[in-house]
Amino acid sequence: MGRIVLWISPLLWALSTLTTPAAADSGGVIIVVPPVSTDTGIKQIPDAAHPYVAPGPGDQRGPCPGLNTLANHGYLPHNGIASFEQIVNATREGFNMEHDLAGALAGFAMLARGNAFLDLVSIGGTSSLIPVLPGAIDGPNPPGGISKHGRFEGDVSMTRQDAAIGDNVNFQNSLYDELLLYTGRFGDDSPITGNGSIVTTKVMQEFKYARFLEDQVQNKALQYHVGRLTLSYGEAAFVLNFFANGTDGTLSQQTMGSFFRNQTFPANWHRRSTPGSTVGFRPLGMAQGTGTKKEHCGGPVGHLGTWGQRMVHQDERNLNKKYIL
Ligand SMILES: *[C@@H]1O[C@H](CO)[C@@H](O)[C@H](O)[C@H]1NC(C)=O
Ligand SMILES: *[C@@H]1O[C@H](CO)[C@@H](O)[C@H](O)[C@H]1NC(C)=O
Ligand SMILES: *[C@@H]1O[C@H](CO)[C@@H](O)[C@H](O)[C@H]1NC(C)=O
Ligand SMILES: *[C@@H]1O[C@H](CO)[C@@H](O)[C@H](O)[C@H]1NC(C)=O
What start-end ranges are recorded for coiled-coil regions in this protein (predicted)? Predict the structure, then answer.
């Protein structure tokens, strides 16, 4: 990944110099890829140097509870405006995210919704600190930050509403209550945190599939194509793999609540004991569920969506030949 980013950033830089010859001399920032760290063991997070500080009115916060938490504790800049290197470092320090995965996500966020020329992306919305790209190569408006719907942020999220029908940036109690319902119903028991309190893969499978069906009915502009399906199940896998207490790898409903509701690390929490990569997360395996549910993509009920139309004839496993691949 480091290599890909190293290739992409000079490319963008070269592109920007073509469009506006003066740009290269006027404050472009070279993106730094930090070395792979050896500090990747279990540790208690936060440390004393990173207490929770609530965001102020000017601080950017967005749809990702993990990034919001890192900014609230100062692992990311408190104003929510970060460089590629800061994101890679912070996601490792706070969550033990593996170097290449962190680089891929930070790179995607930067290219899709940030200003790669200045090496800055907002973990929330548009910021006066992040101007339009040189030559306005991504349109006349400043980059939207990861809150802006359509590239990084997408439909059928767990705790944010679809952009077309509600608030796609801030935590939604009603959706979270639904997740708690599925946790109570399908979660594991714990003598410490209670029966039905441990969030499992099964919980996420059932909840995500229910959210998809729900949004198919409610959102006439639903976009749930293969790319979004992968990312959105990836998010569920992230919650299980990065929010769990590193000491035993389990994620209690109470711990999950601290990240989602309060955007703070729970007391006495430990980051995972090994670097977390996509290997082993199997987001698509999660989408396939227990075998009773097939992969599901598409648009609103009765519509295949652009991607669905292309793929439906290639796959005879359609459940109803209508909207499920
Ligand atoms: C990122 O971490 C590396 C050590 O792994 C350190 O040398 C570097 O200064 C850090 N960068 C930032 C922006 O904090
Ligand atoms: C929790 O579940 C166990 C079985 O796993 C059961 O024996 C116990 O009574 C349950 N506790 C409560 C409070 O429901
Ligand atoms: C969130 O913070 C409030 C105030 O500190 C606390 O009472 C509540 O228990 C916290 N909720 C979770 C889920 O951690
Ligand atoms: C994490 O696990 C340790 C060891 O079992 C426990 O002492 C601690 O309370 C747990 N933390 C949370 C947030 O569950």
Answer: none
Task: Tell whether 303 is covered by a domain.
Answer: no
CB half-sphere exposure, 324, CA atoms < 13 A = 13
Within 8 A by CB and 6+ apart from 159, the residues are 65, 171, 172, 175, 176, 179, 260
**What residue's CA is closest to ligand 1, atom 1?**
89
Asked if residue 95 is part of any domain, the answer here is yes
Rounded Cα–Cα distance for residues 1 and 97 (Å): 14
Cα of 286 vs centre of ligand 4, distance in Å, is: 26
The answer, as to whether pTM is greater than 0.70, is yes
Tokens representing residue 141 in the block: 């408006």
* Site residues for ligand 4, CB cut-off 6 Å: 245, 247-248, 252, 255, 266, 268-270
- For residue 43, which amino acid is it? K
The ligand placed nearest to the CA atom of residue 184 is: 2
195 lines ligand 2 (CB under 6 A): yes
Choice between 308 and 145, residue whose per-residue pLDDT is larger: 145
User: What is the tally of structural domains in the chain?
Assistant: 1
Q: Which of 186, 195, 197, 198 to mutate to test the pocket of ligand 2 (most atoms within 8 A of CB)?
A: 195
DSSP 225: -
Question: Residue range 106-116: average pLDDT?
Answer: 96
CATH number for the domain spanning 195: value is: 1.10.489.10
Per the domain annotation, does 292 fall within a domain?
A: no
Express each pLDDT in 299-324 by its tens digit: 666 554 444 433 333 333 333 333 33
Residue 122 belongs to what domain range?
Answer: 43-285
The per-residue DSSP string of 237-263 comes to HHHHHHSS-TTT---BHHHHHIIIII-
- CA 43 → CA 75, 244, 274, distances in Å? 15, 13, 11
Which of 11-20, 139-148, 215-224 is the least confident region?
Answer: 11-20
How do residues 6-65 score in pLDDT, each as one tens digit? 445 554 554 444 444 444 456 899 999 999 999 999 999 999 999 999 999 999 999 999
